[in-house]
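does this look right to u?? copper (II) ion version
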Amino acid sequence: MQRIVLGVISALFVLLTPLTAFAQEKLHDPAAGWYSHFNLWLIISIVIYLVVTIPLIYFPFKYRRKKTNQDGAYIQGNTALEILWIVIPIIITLLLGVQSWALFTEYRTVPKDAFEAKSVAFMYGFEMTSPEGITTMNELRVPVGPVKMNLTSKDVIHDFAIPHFRVREDMLPGRTTYLWFNAKKPGEYPVFCSFYCGTGHSGMLAKVIVMEKNDYDEWVKKQKGASEAAAASPELMGKELLDKSGCTGCHSITGEVKMGPSLKGILGKKTILADDSTVTVDEAFIKEKITNPEAKRIKGFPPVMPPTQLKPGESEAISAYLKTLK
Amino acid sequence: MAEQPTGLRSWIFTTDHKKIGVMYLVTALVFFVVGLLLAAVMRTENLDMARKTIIIGPYLYNVFFTIHGAAMVLFWMIPVLLGFFANYMIPLMIGAHDVAFPRLNALSYWFYVGSGLIAVCGLILPGRLDIGWTGYAPYSLVGGANTAFYVFAVHLLGASSISGAVNFITTIITLRAPGMTWGRLNLTVWGLLGAFIIQLVGVPVLAAAVTLLLFDKYLGTSFYNAFKGGNPLLYEHLFWFYGHPAVYVVALPVFGIVSDIIATFARKKIFGYTSMVIAIMLITVVGFETWVHHLFVAGTLNWSRVVFMWATIFIGVPTGIKIFNWLATLHKGSIELTAPMLYALGFISLFTIGGVTGVANGLVGFDISVHDTHWIVAHFHYVLAISMSMLIMGGIYYWFPKFTGKMYNEKLAKFAFWLTLIGAMVAFFPQFIIGYDGIPRRYWKLPVEYTPHMRIAAIFSYIAIIGFFLTLYNFLHSAMKGKPASSNPWNSKSLEWQIPSPPPFYNFEKIPVITEGPYEYGKPEGEAPKGH
Ligand code: HEM
Ligand SMILES: [Cu+2]
Ligand SMILES: [Cu+2]
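got this back:
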């Protein structure tokens, strides 16, 4: 028995050796490291599960009671066996723990050349700011390569999760947290709020758009031109406000129903309120809805729209833009 | 011996540990039913992931998972174990007439009822609780919920838990019959002892945490308000300092009950009794050193996450010991597959799935990808929620002849077991896949591509829930109309089976003198046992 114990233990130590190699290798992509960590865990877990379930199913048949009140064998314990199933789990734990530690270090060590963007969460959306100072709502554009996100929140705790890159970190009011990921391929990747934050939690979605460096630079140039144009035209300012104030987190401009009704073609429409009265949507109604949404709730929707403070002229700009959506 | 009152008054004013135990059982089962019904509605809301209300909409979905979680953990699992099983079994197993403080015991029960009523207010009155069973600040401070419901429910329940813990720890230490040494205690008693120690240390911290919520929300303080110098992470730390050990409050007694059931139906001495006890006590202590795994992506210090990873994954070792000891107890046993035994074995298979995925969550690098996703929901329903609720059903069946004096319907019991097991095994598996894809939990609607996953989850949840309801029907029907049971139908060697069923008012006519442990099956005459 003792020989078996020793044999198993030394075999497991041999298994540990490649691990030290892993700890030193710099992957520069936590997501890739995550998959190999997962695979090791999965193999070990399947083996453990079989080791437990096979006897669990087999013993009751093999040792079925044959006569009433027949007793089982009188055995107190077996020191060698008990040591075996203390030592093997300890070794497995060390194995997984060391690998996880290395991976975690990777996750938390940001490469020096990372592109650095910022996101501020609010109920219910993400305001994103590029290093050039361009602010967008629920949409972050980044060039290919490592990206660091600085995260914070305006109100309650939220979370910034990008499943594709296997990263997430909470966004706390009053302090800044961070995460980084390696954006290898251009494309669109969904972002979720992964910390419960209220009625709009499941609608608090965004995306990261990874672009080739050239495309990104071009986009930056266009944005700078656009915000100058917006200053001149109320419609464009209204469109920007709708994004900036987080309205588009809950309202589409395409007719699709999200958390709230779509804002497409809303001006002049008749709307039924929660008390079953009907109103016609006009500029005044929109202004009141934005500053004091409690006053008139729309029937059939959850009462979650938050009040927003506007500067003079802003509500008119929003209405001007909404008129263009036919 | 005192005179025995009868009728309703005999229940309301009782200080008899057995009656109080039964009242705990009935009340806890009511909350279990509430929790199951809320779950059924949530699952129905999950049937289609298009963003349209099916029956409750996003706000009520959040209220439902809040009350579901609270009802299940705080008002079902903990009270049924530390209220019913502890009350009924501890005095019988250690050979005592009653608990150390019978009046305090009755008070604990009534605090629990009061707390439960407040929680029900949080479901039905305006200002419904939509803050999660965790009540995280700052959302619980700035949202529309009437957080006071939550705070006062936790306070009353805390008072109940602390007085219960004081009472039972004293009982176990001081009221053991002559000859009932520590080495002869049932593992159920050991498990309960561990759980009560955790309650005594942990609950005051939880009570403090929620008290600060109350101050912040209604008295203008700012312990958790980041914009006025407070710190929202403080709440998470304080909550999980108790919140994590709370899962061991449930798990340790369950481990004990599994051991008792297996010993009886394998008619075999528990393999490695001493290592079982050491494992229980290790878990009791180390359980307090793991809470930061709930804050693995919360902006906590990097090094602290690594330290708490080690503590968390090392808890797997004593837990593993217990599983292997159970298997070794089955080995060369004389096994009869009654309903309680099926539940014990089913528990081990579900719990092992939860256990290996729990190690994954404890691995800090792994967890970053699955934290707060459906992976976690799947994990804790396997490891704790479903597996342990099922085992509790097994425990009730096991002692059913003892506390009712009647026999349950074995055929129905087995049928319901298989329904629940198959339902539960399948129902939560799709959530591992959804969580592997990184999709967060507490979502009213997931991305539409998960509609098929959630339909499977919903259908098998219904099956599991029907299984539970059949089990409850079996309890109810058998308690009223079951065949009379003999005092020791399993022919167990444990002390509680050596007295009549149901036990007489003062349990033992004369306090017994104990000469051997509860698991001495097949002991050869006058021979020392093998091993050790
Ligand atoms: C068949 C039975 C059950 C079903 C179908 C079920 C279903 C669910 C569902 C759908 C959720 C919400 C998941 C989400 O959107 O994040 C949930 C959460 C939860 N369940 Fe269950 N559940 C069952 C039994 C139990 C039991 C017995 C417990 C006992 C401990 C339990 C404890 C919890 C907890 C603690 C939560 C988290 C609540 C929160 O996020 O605040 N469940 N369950
Ligand atoms: Cu959220
Ligand atoms: Cu925990």
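Chain B touches chain A through 92 residues (CB under 8 Å). idk if thats expected tbh
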